[in-house]
Amino acid sequence: MKERFDVSGMTCASCQANVQKAVQKLGVNDVNVNLISESMTVDYDSDKISNDDIIKAVEKIGYGASPKDKDRSSEINLKEHEEMSTISRLKISFLFLIPLMYLEMGPMINLPIPSFLEGRAGAINNAFVQFLLALPVIFVNRKFFVSGFKSLVNKAPNMDTLVALGAGAATIFGIFAIMRMSYALGLNDTQVLDHYRHNIYFESSATILTLITLGKYFEARSKGETKASLKHLMDLAPKTAKVIKNGEEIEVAIEEIEIGDTIVVRPGESIPVDGIVTKGSSLVDQAAITGESIPVNKNPGDEVISASINKQGSFQFRAKRVGENTTISQIISLVNEANETKAPIAKLADKISAIFVPMVIVIAILTFAISAYLTKDFEFALNLMIAVLVISCPCALGLATPMAIMVSTGKSAELGLLFKSAESLENLHKIDSILLDKTGTITEGKPVVTDVYTKMDDKEFISIARSIEEASEHPLSNAIVEFANSKNIGPKETSDFNSITGMGLEAKIDGKIYYAGNIKLMNDKNISVKDFEERSTSYSEEGKTSMYFADENEVLGLIAVQDLAKDSSIKAIEKLKAMGYHIAMLTGDNEKTAEAIRKKLAIDEKYAEVLPQDKDKVVRKLQESGKNVAMVGDGINDAPALARSDIGIAIGSGTDIAIDSADVVLIKNSLLDIVNSIRLSSKTIKIIKENLFWAFFYNIILIPVAAGILYPRYGITLNPMFAALAMSISSVFVCLNSLRLRNFKPEEEESKEENIIIKENEMSELNKMIVKVDGMSCENCAKHVTEALESVSGIKEVNVNLENKEANVEYFGSVDEDEISKAISEAGYEYKGIEYK
């Protein structure tokens, strides 16, 4: 079984590694610890290991653990409490650090201090006051000492151990200095007194703790930024819904909604669960879920998505997916799962973190021993040891990967790109071959009539064709019926309808037999196709499917039907090819039709006449040829191929099968999102590499400097205070660098504004009208009418002609005449009609 836990007390990559190692020792199947979300997912055998065993293992090494709270409100409250506690500690630390620094550094730049603290006479008083000022800073930040020394005792040292040892050593040396000064004063040994009064390290201890806390505060703020996208998604779903039960409308909690319930949604309200519209229609804004910027029309039979917003009319829908099965819940679940898994690139940081802190402690001890031996200066050696301990805190290393992953998965959720794991997020940019299923992926998945060829009256022919196809539920039949409807051509009365397997249909119209089907049916009925075969071949070469229509004696005509490629698919294939990817297409179509589509879309390779159960064989064939394959399908009949591919990408609304089979789920039905997901994957890995480079570079360069490697030749050392500042800055840099991913924009958005302007300009040239208005008598009236008309959606420009009592209007798209009439009436004038140009 899999169980999620909250883990408290983790501060760095070493903490993460320690917790993971402690739980692994129990014999669990798998464990993933996330530093950013302070959580842990454990896969274990419940017959051998219990939750209590896991919690005790974590607590034994100095951390806290508890089963993940299903109610996220308590988790949010805990996080807020921790942030407030950090702010309080920071305020108190600075309150005492500032006068402490003044006492220590002020005399160096001739700043005045109280006389009882000056010179040799006030040396002990000065040192003791510094000690009293440092104590509150040490006390409010005692968690570093408690956690650090507890971890050290349990042989699992972490970042807090380094901070505790560094700040503790500085404090103890300060106390030792007071004792030495007191003893020297008793002996009137001014040389010893002068030496120690200039080497008191209370300000170093307080500065280290304050700067580390400041770094933690900035980290917490950055972590909060990374969770903003996910928190926004969580807040989208309403807490209650209006459900019709026993003929009455009642308000219930969203948790109480059951499958099949009828729910009412009014303008401005959020849709609580997934469902099917049963009554009414509206425009629904799905931008937060799918990234679509334009509201979508919803009519009876259409699906609505939880957390989308009803913009216009009221409607009713039947609940289809509730609770954890709704789209919004699945998105949140997928994002959480992705955050709690590790990208392969993170394993390097984990391995280093596991041995890093013990190695630093050894380096610090060696630094002290060697420096003390060579220089015979105990204080100098201690200074170097403290600097090494503080500069080495592996915060940046621990934040490098999870920070970027969390920002990226949060951003991808906003865009409707769902990565199932951190591994899929990393591996997506490694693919070199993309295999696209044709139907529903490249194409609309809905055939439409493209050509009608007949030697009889078109209307009569279409009526006959529609009549035969009316009783069939085949997609091609539906296309012909819809085409006839669009032409307002109704059916004739039919009888003796019969479906002929593998060939077509037959039916009687006015007592006469008619046929609809392929060339096999025509041959079977001995009907000559010689005048139509060439045209049918021509259609096939264009990737269209031809259907013959005939009576008992001759062919009456042909109707060509095609499942058209989406505009977004054409653009996406162009972009993917430009990016250097090998594009292949899977289809059940015959060779001729498949080749026509391949040529039309400039696809590199095609696999035709492939049965659903054989799609995974094509994936295997490409992999055996050395390709790193991403399979893209609708997540239903493509499940085996999605599972076999290196990266499975499901196009669609995130069905259960898609989520189970695919590594990436794209909520919008658009291939352009493949381009966006690859770009996001590449950018995320680039950010992670930058973070890891900075973290490694920082430690590799500064640890030797802190250890005094430059001192013999250049006299350069690293003050512990500056070491603490540098450590904090490195962590903040990693956080800020990761946050750059929030600025990621889908490629198609770059030219969106320009396209809108062009479109508006084109449409404004084509649409003009004259609005007749009575009651205008002066320029002031003209101004009021102009303002009224300009307030109507779609109207771009208004020029009022007082003499003719009319307004020349330019507009784009279409405008509502009732809205124009209402606007003029509300302005105090009389609407007299429209004259279109």
Detailed description of the structure:
The protein is α+β, with helices and mostly antiparallel strands and 837 residues long. Helices cover 51% and strands 19% of the residues. It contains 31 helices and 30 strands. Strands 14-26-25-24-15-22-23 form a seven-stranded mixed beta sheet, with helices on both faces. Strand 2 (30-34) and strand 3 form a beta hairpin. Helix 4 (123-140) runs antiparallel to helix 6 (159-187). The radius of gyration is 37 Å and the shape is elongated. It starts with a strand and ends with a strand.
Task: Characterize this entry briefly.
The protein is α+β, with helices and mostly antiparallel strands and about 850 residues long. It has 31 helices and 30 strands.
Strand content: 15-25%
Overall average residue pLDDT: 81
**Poorly predicted tracts of residues:** 72-76, 749-765
How large, in whole angstroms, is the Cα Rg? Answer: 37 Å
Q: For the terminal residues, how far apart are their CA atoms?
A: 71 Å
The DSSP helix count reads: 31
Helix content: 40-55%
Main sheet summary: 7 strands, mixed
Anisotropy-based shape: elongated
The helix/strand class is alpha+beta
Instruction: Report the count of strand segments.
Output: 30
Strand order of the largest sheet: 14-26-25-24-15-22-23
Descriptive key words:
alpha+beta; single chain; elongated; 30 strands; 7-stranded mixed sheet; 31 helices; 837 residues; 6-stranded antiparallel sheet
Give the topology, please.
Elements: E1 2-8, H1 13-24, E2 30-34, E3 39-43, H2 51-60, E4 64-67, H3 72-105, H4 123-140, H5 143-153, H6 159-187, H7 190-197, H8 202-226, H9 228-236, E5 240-245, E6 248-253, E7 262-265, E8 274-280, E9 282-285, H10 287-290, E10 296-298, E11 303-304, E12 309-310, E13 315-321, H11 327-339, H12 346-375, H13 378-391, H14 395-414, E14 417-419, H15 422-427, E15 433-437, H16 438-442, E16 448-454, H17 458-469, H18 475-486, E17 494-500, E18 504-509, E19 512-517, H19 519-524, H20 533-541, E20 545-551, E21 555-562, H21 567-578, E22 582-586, H22 591-601, E23 605-607, H23 615-624, E24 629-633, H24 639-644, E25 647-651, H25 656-661, E26 664-666, H26 672-706, H27 711-714, H28 720-739, H29 752-766, E27 768-774, H30 779-790, E28 795-801, E29 806-811, H31 817-826, E30 830-836
Parallel strand pairs: 15-22, 15-24, 22-23, 24-25, 25-26
Antiparallel strand pairs: 1-3, 1-4, 2-3, 5-6, 5-7, 7-13, 8-11, 8-13, 9-10, 9-12, 14-26, 16-21, 17-18, 18-19, 19-20, 20-21, 27-29, 27-30, 28-29
Helix pairs in contact: 1-12, 3-4, 3-8, 4-6, 4-8, 5-6, 6-7, 6-8, 6-13, 8-28, 9-14, 11-14, 12-13, 12-14, 13-26, 13-28, 14-26, 14-28, 17-18, 21-26, 26-28
